[in-house]
Amino acid sequence: MHDPTQLDMVMRYHQETKHQFNHYAKALGSLDWANQPNPFRRYEGADLIHLPIRRLDEEPLSPPYDHLYLPGAVPSAPVTAHTLSRLFEYALGLSAWKQAGATRWALRSNPSSGNLHPTEGYLLIGAVDGLASLPGLYHYAPKEHGLERRTDCPNNLFAALMKGFPQQAFLVGLSSVHWREAWKYGERAFRYCQHDVGHAMGTIRIAAATLGWTAVVLHGLSDATIEDLLGLNRAEDFTGAEREHPDVVMVVWPANSVRDRRAGPDRTLPLGLDPNLVRTLATSSPGWYGKANRLSHDNPTPWDIIDQVADASRKLTSEWPDLHLPLSCPSPLEGAGQGEGESPPAGRIIHQRRSLLACDGTTSISVKHFYAMLTRVMPRMDLDILRRPMPWDALPWNPTIHLGLFVHRVEGIPPGLYLLARDPAKVDQLRKAMHEQFVWTTPPGCPSDLPLYLLEEGNAQRIATQVSCFQDLAGDGAFSLGMIAEYHAALFTQGPWFYRGLFWETGLIGQVLYLEAEAAGVRATGIGCFFDDPVHHVFGLNDVAFQSLYHFTVGGPVDDSRLTTWPPYGEPLPRLSTHPPSKDEE
Known about the structure:
Elements: H1 4-16, E1 43-44, E2 48-50, H2 81-91, E3 94-100, E4 103-108, E5 119-125, E6 136-141, E7 146-152, H3 155-161, E8 170-176, H4 178-185, H5 189-209, E9 213-217, H6 223-230, E10 245-254, H7 256-259, E11 267-270, H8 275-284, E12 291-292, H9 304-312, E13 322-325, H10 346-352, E14 365-366, H11 367-376, E15 401-407, E16 410-411, E17 416-420, H12 427-433, E18 452-457, H13 461-467, H14 473-476, E19 479-485, H15 487-494, H16 498-519, E20 523-527, H17 532-539, E21 547-555, E22 564-566
Parallel strand pairs: 14-16
Antiparallel strand pairs: 1-12, 2-7, 3-4, 3-22, 5-6, 5-8, 6-7, 8-10, 9-10, 11-13, 15-17, 15-19, 17-18, 19-21, 20-21
Helix pairs in contact: 1-9, 2-5, 4-5, 5-16, 6-8, 11-16
């Protein structure tokens, strides 16, 4: 049984932080620029190991982008300092510096609301040449593209912790500094932090795929175990510094460490860690190195409701679920990755990803590209989890998010409202929850295995703009969408901690759409500001069974000629802006 007090707090937070036409969720209303949080956390006093900077034409080379989605198409690279450098470069590293006049700011591979970057990354790994001769825990420093060694882990303890995982497996952890988002967005910031975790989960899984590696979320871990593992509960290391909240740990390994097994039964992949062994690492380590830097000059403005929902949505118990490790790869998706001509390198797509600031209002996309994008966000419910297409093999739960689409400029299908049921078994449930007058017809040329339905034909540009906080880009693109969660059932089945998991799944969907848009020659952006209940009314959703958690739009970008782009590394580091860029200036 789940704690009803925690469930009530989570649902109260969600209701109280909704934007409505007549009022927005609470925020300061102005920005205290002098107290803007530093976007870069460092552990002062910890040794920093710089990862080797590699050009795109240097080993390890990036595979073609479409190959990421073809099982077995990318051979597994060994775990080395160079391949780890690529992993963090594509997952959490800087992708560019932008300059406007005398002001510069950094962009990253993982997108973030307002470019504020509340997400921090960690690595627990065995001995690797170029890093250390002993296993250890590291914090990733994106500005320096380096790893700060936080603590050592004895060989026998590391072996015990990683028992049951494939050879060469290691762990990547994520945490959030809620203040970084709350500084700008107030009470709604907790939602945005969870979006960002989902995006980072996506960038980690996709970065792993460029190396022929696999990554899976260890969702059996309690938050307390994650805190022990990452050293987040060490009060002495955070004295005077803003707290980090535990989010996710993923296990990463070279796929061929499983695929090359010639005989024997399927192995199982544990989705948890022994909390006693993790606690041993936290308390019996030979030493912890470094103290967290303070991010703001003054104390953060208190947002009690964020602290309350963070506590209420903690995962309190550790579990021991597991998944079967397949001995063979799944078959490639029919028609997946078969675009016109040679696919560009995945690394180039990852580096060039930017968030739309405005759509040109004229660019359309072909229905072929539209269907291909939607196919990429389908988790293939007919397959076991680890046989599902990348990156949906990273989430050890069935999909809970569906897409309500506002289609404006897709050549070959009429404009209007559409619904993509990411779990085909939920179509009848969605149909019963929505407006009775919706037609639920299959659009022309839609692949037979893509559960996309036209609900209502007509010009949806104005309503898309209105419900997305009157942001023109929602109506000026080729299409926009709301990510509709199975909210009530998920919370009461999985528990209040899964409130965060719902947002993580939306961020992962968004990351796929970001890269798909770049590959199609257009651009995308996440939209965190939307009028919650008016969105529900558009689709006829009149209770809390389904809730929209994230919006997104895809279209032709309007470039700002005033901006200059600088490479992420290798040039003298520019000074950071005293004022951040506007909402999602990437």
